[in-house]
């Protein structure tokens, strides 16, 4: 259904529709013109209305900067896809450009930089000791064996604690990056952010949870 | 400073009928009433012009922000409407005696009303006259009945949803239909009722129906994003609902980027206008008005008065009593969160609803049976929100708590397809609750001018001194006990660390609830108050304050609806006084 039709369907007044469309047109044009997940969109937002000049300048500066080395980015990409792989419902973390998101967010929030850089280094050192090579060069079974040691906080041995803290952060950033992407939002089934008329919990759902009526 | 070789103060000959400082709920309402009555009004705003229709970030998806909506530059997220925050570049404030007060300032047309929660509660009869209850606080010089007609007019002018309940201290308004509860809210209601806590439909300034007689505002289309401000003007922002309509009268002039330095007075002690620095050209200006109205916020209005010293007003303007800055108080606040295991794998549908509260709990207990004064209301949250920065964080604290799809308990944490599925399973199960309670107005809590610090414009800044007492701490303790019993009543699993005595039971620092009021209080006695019952300065009859500064004592209610009613009341008083030629 086109947006204009959907307005009619939900019975919004002509006025509200007109006002809203004026505001949405740029957004809609942008959504079709660029893949919203691509870093390009983030680099040059089509619609900067309402953004403060210092925010626009800051974003530009951040996009131009680089924090992670190519080796670190490769490690992040491998880890992200181990955390969120492709399955029957949606693609992998890297399909949703999660590594690019993590590359940006550490510049936006510098508090992530040291734990991420140090954690990646810790991981490489562990792998060098165990398997004689950095994490990305390890075989898939070796990578999974290593990750298993740090992915379960309650089971992890004390010598793995630094790795657990790193992996918790890496898992959080991967999940946030994935499920806030266009692919992830579709996967999780968020159905909002669109004009509609809220009339309460659907009847079948009320019934499912034993609520007789919606009030 | 640029242009120092050309440093002089620019003065204009125009004398406005009224000069208003600030464009939020208080200043915006004064501008609306006076401009519609035909007065020539000048409004000065310290931030940029803001029109939600063009500037709101409404209906953007998280991925349209490179930080996915995170709060790096805007404290309530990348799409939130407020320009500003707890700290402003070049505009500091300080604290003394190791106390804490966090001051949120929004520099923009409409101020903080562009992003507020739209929770629109009237203060009740007991909130205006509370001295007899426990002797802790002074009464307002006015009663609920004095303000009721203005609450009614605000309801009609702006629109508010809710239900008539007939409760003594939660006065009913002229309500539109409230939004139906979401699924999590039905569980909350069921759980709360089980443990004796009432839950009512919310009260919010969002148009769930067309506003009679108003062609400029659209009806809510349920995106749940009032915090971003509404492009169709379906929620109340002072920008969209007051200032922009007032501009259409042709009687209002708005100067944005105008940081007011002081209120100017003449030899007779009356206000003649204000001086300001233009934040863009850094030039100094003076403008004249027959009446000066401050709506700069409780903090800024006190700062302005204290910085307006003259031979007639050596202690600062309107401050012969010495009360300006004193009695500052901000609502108490504490919260708890958890999730509903019975909502795992719930069906997906759009439940964005409105961006204000669908349900709330008004204060329901008798303080005679409690160990703290006054009360709090509870606001609730949860459900299937748009995933944004922070989504999925801390899954290792959740996914070991419930059985997997195969019925077996899982090891917390993990990775891979099974973890990916866990995020789906937990989506929309969260539930949270937050108390907002009455803080006692105390003379010993105050803001004053810091003698040593100026902002980048050379204006002396505020210094805060604010201490919580057992009254507020015990209230927070009670909130936590209530929250836990509601959580248990609804079968939720609490995920927050339950705050104990070491953190004052999660009591937020003063200022954090952004309900600060009381710095230029009203009263009948000029020795104990700065303003009379019309919000008119005892010491200066053509000076008025219309923000939250005149509050004598807050209730647990959010301040905005009362600011609007009082500002309308004061504005009509100004019109009446002009008719009688008392104010020229």
What does this protein look like?
The complex is a heterodimer of chains A (215) and B (584). In chain A, 61% of the residues lie in helices and 0% in strands. Chain A is built from eleven helices and no strands. With 215 residues, chain A is mainly alpha-helical. Chain B is α/β, with parallel strands linked by helices and 584 residues long. Chain B has a six-stranded mixed β-sheet with strand order 8-3-2-12-21-20, with helices on one face. In chain B, strands 7-14-15-16-13-19 form a six-stranded antiparallel β-sheet, covered by helices on one side. In chain B, helix 1 (25-36) runs parallel beside helix 7 (238-247) and helix 5 packs across helix 11 (560-579). The chains are: A mainly alpha (215), B alpha/beta (584). Chains A and B meet through helix 2, helix 4, helix 6, helix 9 and helix 10 of A and helix 2, helix 6 and helix 9 of B.
Which structural class is indicated by helix and strand composition of chain A? Answer: mainly alpha
Residue fraction in strands of chain A: under 5%
| Helix share, percent of chain B | 10-25%
Shape label of chain B: globular
Following the backbone from N to C, one meets helices and strands of chain A in this order, namely HHHHHHHHHHH
According to DSSP, the number of beta strands of chain B is 21
Mean pLDDT across all amino acids of chain A: 85
CA radius of gyration of chain B is 24 Å
Q: Please count the helical segments of chain B.
A: 11
Question: For the residues shown, what is the average pLDDT of chain B?
Answer: 97
Q: Which residues of chain B sit in consecutive blocks of at least 5 with pLDDT less than 50?
A: none
Largest sheet of chain A: none
User: What topology, given as strand order, has the largest sheet of chain B?
Assistant: 8-3-2-12-21-20
Distance between the termini of chain A: 31 Å
Shape assignment of chain A: globular
Oligomerization:
heterodimer
**What structural class do you assign from the helix and strand content of chain B?**
alpha/beta
């Amino acid at each position: 259904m086109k947006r204009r039709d959907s307005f009619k369907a939900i019975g919004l007044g002509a006025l509200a529709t007109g006002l809203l469309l004026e505001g949405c047109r740029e957004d809609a044009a942008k959504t079709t013109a660029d893949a919203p997940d691509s870093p390009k969109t983030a680099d040059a937002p089509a619609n900067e209305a309402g953004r403060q000049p210092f925010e626009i300048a800051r974003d530009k500066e951040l996009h131009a900067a680089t924090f992670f080395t190519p080796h670190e980015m490769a490690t992040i990409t491998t880890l992200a896809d181990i955390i969120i792989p492709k399955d029957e419902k949606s693609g992998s973390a890297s399909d949703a450009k999660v590594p690019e998101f993590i590359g940006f967010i550490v510049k936006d929030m510098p508090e992530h930089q040291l734990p991420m850089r140090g954690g990646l280094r810790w991981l490489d050192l562990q792998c060098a000791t165990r398997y004689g090579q950095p994490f990305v060069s390890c075989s898939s079974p070796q990578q999974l064996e290593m990750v298993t040691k740090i992915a379960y906080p309650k089971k992890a041995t004390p010598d793995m604690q630094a790795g657990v803290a790193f992996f918790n952060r890496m898992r959080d950033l991967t999940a946030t990056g994935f499920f806030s992407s266009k692919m992830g939002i579709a996967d999780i089934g968020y159905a909002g952010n669109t004009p509609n008329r809220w009339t309460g919990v659907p009847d079948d759902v009320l019934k499912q949870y034993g609520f007789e009526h919606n009030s | 400073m640029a242009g120092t070789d050309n440093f002089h103060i620019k003065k204009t000959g125009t004398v406005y009928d009224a000069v208003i400082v600030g464009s939020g709920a208080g200043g915006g309402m004064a501008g609306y009433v006076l401009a519609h009555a035909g007065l020539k009004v000048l409004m000065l705003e310290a931030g940029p012009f803001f029109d939600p229709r063009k500037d709101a970030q409404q209906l953007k998806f998280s991925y349209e922000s490179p930080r996915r909506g995170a709060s790096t530059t805007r404290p309530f997220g990348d799409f939130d409407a407020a320009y500003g925050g707890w700290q402003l570049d070049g505009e500091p404030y300080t604290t003394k005696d190791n106390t804490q007060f966090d001051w949120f300032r929004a520099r923009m047309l409409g101020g903080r009303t562009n992003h507020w929660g739209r929770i629109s509660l009237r203060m009740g009869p007991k909130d205006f006259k509370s001295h007899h209850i426990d002797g802790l606080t002074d009464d307002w010089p006015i009663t609920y009945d004095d303000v009721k007609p203005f609450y009614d007019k605000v309801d009609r002018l702006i629109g508010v949803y809710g239900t008539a309940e007939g409760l003594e201290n939660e006065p009913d308004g002229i309500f539109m239909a409230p939004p139906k509860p979401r699924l999590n809210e039905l569980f909350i209601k069921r759980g709360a009722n089980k443990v004796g806590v009432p839950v009512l439909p919310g009260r919010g300034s969002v148009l769930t129906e067309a506003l009679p007689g108003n062609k400029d505002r659209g009806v809510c289309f349920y995106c749940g994003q009032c915090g971003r401000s509404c492009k169709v003007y379906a929620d109340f922002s002072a920008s969209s609902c007051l200032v922009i309509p007032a501009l259409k009268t042709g009687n209002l002039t708005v100067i944005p980027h105008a940081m007011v330095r002081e209120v100017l007075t003449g030899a007779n002690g009356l206000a003649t206008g204000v001086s300001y620095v233009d934040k863009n050209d850094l030039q100094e200006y003076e403008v004249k008005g027959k009446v000066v109205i401050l709506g700069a916020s409780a903090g800024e209005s006190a700062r302005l008065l204290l910085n307006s010293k003259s031979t007639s007003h050596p202690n600062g303007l309107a401050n012969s009593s010495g009360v300006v800055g004193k009695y500052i108080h901000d609502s108490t606040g504490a919260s708890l969160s958890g999730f509903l295991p019975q909502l795992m794998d719930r069906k997906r549908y759009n439940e964005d609803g409105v961006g204000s509260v669908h349900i709330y709990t008004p204060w329901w207990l008798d303080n005679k049976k409690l160990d703290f004064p006054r009360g709090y209301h509870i606001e609730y949250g949860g459900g299937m929100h748009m995933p944004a920065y922070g989504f999925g964080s801390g899954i290792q604290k959740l996914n070991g708590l419930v059985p997997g799809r195969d019925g077996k308990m899982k090891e917390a944490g993990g990775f891979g397809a099974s973890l990916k599925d866990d995020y789906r399973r937990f989506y929309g199960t969260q539930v949270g609750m937050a108390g907002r309670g009455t803080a006692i107005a105390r003379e010993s809590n105050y803001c004053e001018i810091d003698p040593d610090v100026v902002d980048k414009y050379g204006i002396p800044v505020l210094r805060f001194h604010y201490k919580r007492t057992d009254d507020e701490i015990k209230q927070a303790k009670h909130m936590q006990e209530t929250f836990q019993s509601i959580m248990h009543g609804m079968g939720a699993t609490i995920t927050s660390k339950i705050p104990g005595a070491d953190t004052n039971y999660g009591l937020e620092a003063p200022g954090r609830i952004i309900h600060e009021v009381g710095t230029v209080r009203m009263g009948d006695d000029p020795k104990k108050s700065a303003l009379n019952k019309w919000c008119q300065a005892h010491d200066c009859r053509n000076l008025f304050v219309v923000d939250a500064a005149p509050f004598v004592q807050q209730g647990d209610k959010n301040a905005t609806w009362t600011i609007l009613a009082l500002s309308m009341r004061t504005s009509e008083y100004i019109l009446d006084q002009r008719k009688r030629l008392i104010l020229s």
